[in-house]
Amino acid sequence: MARKLGIFVIADEVYAHLTFGEKKFVPMGVFGSVAPVLTLGSISKRWVVPGWRLGWIVTNDPNGVFHKTKVVGSIKSYLDISSDPPTFIQGAIPQLIKNTKQEFFDKTIEVLRQTADICWEKLKGISCITCPSRPEGSMFVMVKLDLSCLKDIKDDMDFCCRLAKEELAVVLPGCAVGYKNWLRITFAIAPSSLEDGLDRLKSFCLRHSKQK
After folding, report:
1. What CATH number does residue 75 fall under?
2. What's the rounded Cα separation, in Å, for the pair 169 and 161?
3. How many Cβ atoms sit within 10 Å of the Cβ of residue 178?
4. Which of 29, 49, 130, 149 could bridge across to 60 with cysteines, CB 3.0–4.6 Å?
5. Total domain count, the chain
6. Residue 211 exposed, middle or buried by CB count within 10 Å (0-12, 13-18, 19+)
7. Which range marks the domain in which residue 53 is found?
């Protein structure tokens, strides 16, 4: 489609290294000969350092379209005028890349696989929440909130605010990312903490559920 329309592809692949499902992840860059691809990566996701606003842009363009159209030059010009990351982050990056062993990445994937399974299984026991599919990557899952099962909850924002107040558990309302009456639940935490949080979520839903 991109080749037909004469446009390039921007591939946001910040979670490319955090996949653990049965289906192998295929980066868009392998299709660079079909249409030029700009791939975005992130330190904060790959190395699990939330808030470190630093990443990279990779061009996958064997036909040289980006250079011919001066796209690369435009990107470099923009980076020259944009604000730089904090100096302590810049200073840490060389050692971070040099000294991080493969065992760290393997352990991260294994923990995420374990907590994703915990999340998937425990959400099955909460009637007002539906998880469309088992998580196979990333650090969070989007779940559908069924308000018809709840007696006094207006929407996803109301749900999250009251959950935080009553159970001291925090989830992100879907409206914050454009999905009204959905919830975003992270599973990038210790298994025991995740289980406790999901138990609190279930207790909250039971307390506010309509009596049958």
Report:
1. 3.40.640.10
2. 9
3. 7
4. 29
5. 2
6. exposed
7. 2-99
Whether residues 150 and 199 share a domain: the answer is yes
Rounded to two decimals, the pTM is 0.83
CA distances to 12, 25, 35, 148 from 2, rounded to whole Å, are: 16, 20, 6, 41
Give the CATH number for residue 162.
Answer: 3.90.1150.10
Domain boundary among 47, 70, 99: 99
pLDDT digits (tens, 9 = 90+) for 40-98: 999 999 998 888 888 899 999 999 999 898 988 888 888 777 777 888 888 999 999 99
Residues 95 and 119 occupy one common structural domain: no
Query: If we measure between CA atoms, which residue out of 92, 110, 19 comes closest to residue 49?
Result: 92
Provide the pLDDT for residue 84. Answer: 76
Calculated CA dihedral for residues 170, 173, 177, 179, nearest 10 degrees: 150
Residue 157 · residue 172 · CB < 8 Å:
no
d(CA 133, CA 144): 11
CA nearest to 42, candidates 30, 54, 50, 33: 54
Q: Which residue has the tokens 């088992």?
A: 134
Q: Which residues are registered as beta bridge partners of 42?
A: 55
